[in-house]
Amino acid sequence: MNSPVIEDLALAELSEQPADAAAELRLPRDLDLIRHVQVALSARLGSTEISIEKLYSLRAGDVLALREQVSELVTLFVENRAVARGLLVAVDDCLGIEITEILPT
Predict the structure, then answer these.
(1) How far apart are CA 64 and CA 37, in angstroms?
(2) Mean pLDDT, the chain, whole residue set
(3) pTM of the full predicted structure?
C-alpha cells in the first residue's frame, strides 16, 4: 500500500510575489483551453420562509418580504458555489450587479 507523499510548502516563495500574482495562482495557466466554456451564473437576492399553505395560496401580484435589507449585497453563484458579492444597480431597463467583493475559492 502506497502512503501519500507530503511536501512542505515554502511560504516565503508566496510572500515574495506581488498581491495580484496570488490571484493568478488560482487561474489555470492556459485559459485558451477553457475560455469558451459556459457556466451558469445566478444571483441570490434574499430568502424567506413561508408555510406550505401560504406557498399554495400565492397569486400574481402578491409580495413576499425577504429577510435582507434593500442595501444588502447580492451573492453571485457559479454552479451553486458563491463566488462574488455586489450591489444591485439599474442598467438601462434591466437589473445589474456591481461587483464589490470576490469571494475566496
Answers:
(1) 36
(2) 79
(3) 0.59
